[in-house]
Amino acid sequence: MDEKQLVIELQAGDEKAFRQLVGKYQQQVFRTAMGFVHDGSEADDIAQEVFVEVFRSVHGFRGEASLSTWIYRMTVNRSLNRLRSRKRKGFFQRIEAFFQDDADWTGEPEADCSIHPEAVVGNQETAQALQQALESLPENQRTAFVLYHYEDMAYKEIATVMNVSLPSVESLIHRARKNLQKKLMNFYKK
Amino acid sequence: MMNEQHTTERLWEFHLGNLSEEENRQMEAHLEACESCLRESEVVKQAVQEIVVERSQEVPPFLYTRIQGRLESVRKPAPLWKRTLVTSLGTILLLVSIWGGVKLGTMDVRQTSGTSVENPMGNLAINEMVNEPIEGYLFDFK
Asked: Where is the Putative zinc-finger domain (chain B) (predicted)?
């Protein structure tokens, strides 16, 4: 079934078409979400949210972008929202810890701009260092990096999903790599 | 030979296998000679390997069933009797509040316009500034 036909059947509320859509796009949605949250159960949760959203709003899909681009945008937005709420939660937890027990208070922001080597041990060291370094990147750099490295997307596709120009994507990925390298080098120096 | 700046910029492409054979050879030759680039190359290599591990994770099974579960709760509206009951209760509450407000307002007007002889303390409670019958209160002992 081609994309146009799939959309028409989805808009008609066909459950078979929806099942087909989930089967076709589940891996890309899950993988993209993984690139942002680095946690299987959270990525699974985001994937569920994305497909529920697709089901609810497919009537408004006018085909200006491809279905795949539309789903990627939703996944990126959901993942970024999840990270923002995680950050907010972390902030309130730190405040709570401050009022509960002064000894717990370090006053350091959570995984924002520095990597804490003492927090990582054994084989997970690289994984955690990479995650923390990725989380410290600005959202647009992180999005471009994840779409390129986790999804193998071409620069042109990334430009469409992010709604930016091709040179912007090149620049975002270049800066993201440079920043990551710098942060990871700092981590291994310690 | 590639200069150092050039090498560190192309490390990601090198470890992703996106360079041509010639570029690969140049890169390898440079990494053998330059220790700082080699160190940086190891860091990038580990990051690329970690990304490969993460992206190879499969979607947990039965995703469609879980999505269906979520959709059930979205699709199913509350039963009609429940919706009617909630709406009626809300309307009744609103009407009672309006009626109570009107009642309170008219009570105030009636009491301030009435004589203070029968109930000299009554007005005090409602509006003591307007109608405080201090003289009558002191001298009316009948």
From this structure: 7-37
